[in-house]
Design goal:
Blueprint lengths: L1 H30 L5 H26 L4 E5 L5 E5 L10 H45 L3 H7 L10
Helix pairs in contact: 1-2, 2-3
């Protein structure tokens, strides 16, 4: 049952970390009397965390459905989990644990895609609108980065 323990740790540890991050952000928000910068940083931290745990957790979760049939010495056959041959795929424990794995698949592989689809365009559009508002105000610092300098021609 080592694989099931691995699934529990791999899926619940990042969720616990997210709860701790937002709990600390909420405390910081209350102490700073409404400064939302802690939530922005926390959102960025959760985004980075999800990016780093996505592949490992997703592959661990999808291994749960890979069972293989083995012939027993008495002529019968049974199916076992490829990731952990101690787990019988026909056992009650395996079947009862399957809804947990399905929910975690909805949270990690599916949910993180929605997180990326929402966060990335919103941040991109916010940064682009901020950039163009600075350009409209003719801010020299922005324009100097956008417009290449005039070519240098030394006097003879």
């Amino acid at each position: 049952m080592q694989y099931i323990s691995t699934v529990l740790v791999a899926t619940l540890t990042p969720l616990f970390a997210v709860l701790v991050i937002f709990f600390l952000a909420g405390i910081n928000y209350c102490r700073s009397r409404g400064d939302e910068s802690s939530f922005k940083f926390s959102s960025w931290l959760v985004f980075v965390l999800s990016f780093y745990v996505f592949v490992g957790v997703s592959s661990t979760l999808f291994q749960y459905f890979k069972c293989e049939e083995y012939a027993l010495p008495n002529g019968d056959s049974r199916t076992f989990l490829v990731a952990d041959l101690q787990v019988d795929c026909d056992s009650r424990r395996y079947i009862l644990f399957m809804p947990f794995v399905i929910v975690m698949i909805l949270i990690y592989p599916v949910g993180s895609k929605f997180e990326y689809a929402i966060c990335i365009p919103r941040t991109f559009l916010r940064d682009i609108s901020r950039f163009f508002s600075l350009v409209r105000t003719n801010s020299p610092s922005v324009l100097s980065r956008c417009v290449p300098p005039a070519p240098y021609h030394p006097e003879r």
